[in-house]
Amino acid sequence: MAKTIVILGVTGTQGGSVATEFLSKGWNVKGITRNTTGAAATALASQGIELISADADKPSSFTNVFSGAHVIFAMTNFWQPFFASFAELSKKSDRATGEHSYAVEVARGKTIVDAAAKALEEEGTLERFIWSSLPPMKKLSGGKYTYIYHFDAKAEVADYIREKQPKLWERTSLLNMGFYTSNMIKYGGLMGVAKDKETGRYMMKKPGKNTAVHPLVVTSDTGKFAELLVRTAPGKNLLACNSMTDYASFIKLWSEVTGVPCEVIEVSVEDCDKAAPGGVGREAGESTACSSEFGWGQREGTLVLPWEIDPNLKLTSLREYFESEDWEAFFAKQDE
Ligand SMILES: NC(=O)c1ccc[n+]([C@@H]2O[C@H](COP(=O)([O-])OP(=O)(O)OC[C@H]3O[C@@H](n4cnc5c(N)ncnc54)[C@H](OP(=O)(O)O)[C@@H]3O)[C@@H](O)[C@H]2O)c1
């Protein structure tokens, strides 16, 4: 009989990829959404995915959502509460929005973890709990970078599983998604590629040395990383990336594919803060600066790369990723 995976964020980027991968492997796929009748959910249902209505802000809605699950893929979205409250909270201080979203993300994580632990205790059938985590950057940087709330909140949830739900921890693997390759399209002048209005030249501004190597992930491969964690023993702390690459090489490849030159410019975290005040520029800037300076935990020796677990894992190359995007639409937007 087919095994069952229950996916958080099934209507989104990470969860959607996990659903596609496990459907293709013949699994029984269930997905959690707050809106089972929305367009995204309806499209998933037509592919054979069973939608479950639940909201991580409402712990009571998580009763029994994981019943029958052999695998749970769990993620939370830091940026939704961040941007929903930014206009109001950023007036108070440049930490207020990050602190709020940190608290929301940790509370959501605990709701999900407690429900998964309960399902394991009651049914005993859960084989793997995958937590979409990120490393504790404040700790890794020795307290130098303290605004990277979207990493530290996910790391706190990982600590919660280990400390408060040890039985679940025995069946857990952590999936740390690297920086999305698609950030360069989504985040324009800050961390992305953008056309300079005065010179007409393309540039990417980012903190940290141009030679620093970062984990870059093609999000459509999320399902492959999750599948890797299901078919191997638990206890992994996976740095999910398609390539460990510096941004200068990344953009050089982009220029080769698009035929458009682009300069990568080193900026400071303060420059990011000035470009996007209120905490958002600092949070984004610190994450790249910290990655550049301290890495993601490689020095601590706890992280493992996908190809170290399975040298034959077929992942999308950066060139294939670039070739898959609609650059005509991207360039047209730059001229608007
Ligand atoms: N950008 C990067 O470089 C990067 C790198 C690593 C990690 N990340 C992290 O990735 C996360 C975002 O993941 P994504 O890209 O997959 O997001 P996404 O595409 O925006 O999808 C978000 C998903 O979360 C679900 N969701 C939101 N609030 C919920 C709630 N209260 N209860 C249940 N489900 C809820 C949504 O489902 P419904 O709307 O259907 O309910 C949706 O499926 C962020 O936390 C970010 O920090 C980003």
Automatic annotation (TrEMBL):
Q: Which InterPro entries does the UniProt entry name for this protein?
A: NAD(P)-bd_dom_sf, NmrA-like, NmrA-like_oxidored
| Entry keyword NADP | yes
The chain positions of domain NmrA-like read 2-314
Q: What is one term from the GO cellular component aspect held by the record?
A: nucleus
For this UniProt record, give its keywords in alphabetical order, as a comma-separated list.
NADP
Q: Which Gene3D superfamilies match?
A: NAD(P)-binding Rossmann-like Domain (3.40.50.720), UDP-galactose 4-epimerase, domain 1 (3.90.25.10)
Question: Domain of life here?
Answer: Eukaryota
The record's annotation in Pfam families points to:
NmrA (PF05368)
The record's comment on protein family reads:
Belongs to the NmrA-type oxidoreductase family.
This protein is called NmrA-like domain-containing protein
Lineage of producing organism: Eukaryota, Fungi, Dikarya, Ascomycota, Pezizomycotina
